[in-house]
Design the sequence.
């Protein structure tokens, strides 16, 4: 039977609440575009989040910058990330809740997705370079492995 003639036994919108982490990378912005497409004109709720990981400050503390300076710098970058996300969403006419979260990235994202009752997480495949992935692992892989809800990974 051709796909066009098959009936889908689920509701028109399989997901009711899409959660999309962004870090400003091209991959995360492609994921945002997919999440926006899922939410556009459908009544599906969209939550977009970025995480300020204060645990990463230990590396910088006392070397070139103080922890307070690095935290301020990270806040500025994450604020710019959310501003870019807001612009992309507004250009498509898609409303979303935008969150700046604090904590370990993967645990914080999963906790927030659960607290917001998201039923799918849309992530970019990788926002890091090869060396950083080797040292810290891929956020998208860990989110996929640990999530209680489906995860759509966008290349």
Sequence:
């Amino acid at each position: 039977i051709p796909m066009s003639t098959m009936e889908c036994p689920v509701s028109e919108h399989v997901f009711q609440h899409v959660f999309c982490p962004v870090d400003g990378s091209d991959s995360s912005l492609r994921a945002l575009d997919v999440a926006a497409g899922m939410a556009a004109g459908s009544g599906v709720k969209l939550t977009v989040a970025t995480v300020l990981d204060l645990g990463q400050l230990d590396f910088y503390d006392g070397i070139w910058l103080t922890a307070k300076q690095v935290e301020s710098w990270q806040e500025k970058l994450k604020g710019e990330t959310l501003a870019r996300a807001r612009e992309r969403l507004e250009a498509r006419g898609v409303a979303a809740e935008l969150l700046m979260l604090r904590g370990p990235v993967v645990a914080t994202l999963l906790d927030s997705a659960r607290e917001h009752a998201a039923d799918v997480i849309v992530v970019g495949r990788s926002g890091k370079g090869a060396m950083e992935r080797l040292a810290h692992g891929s956020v998208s892989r860990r989110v996929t492995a640990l999530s209680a809800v489906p995860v759509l990974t966008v290349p």
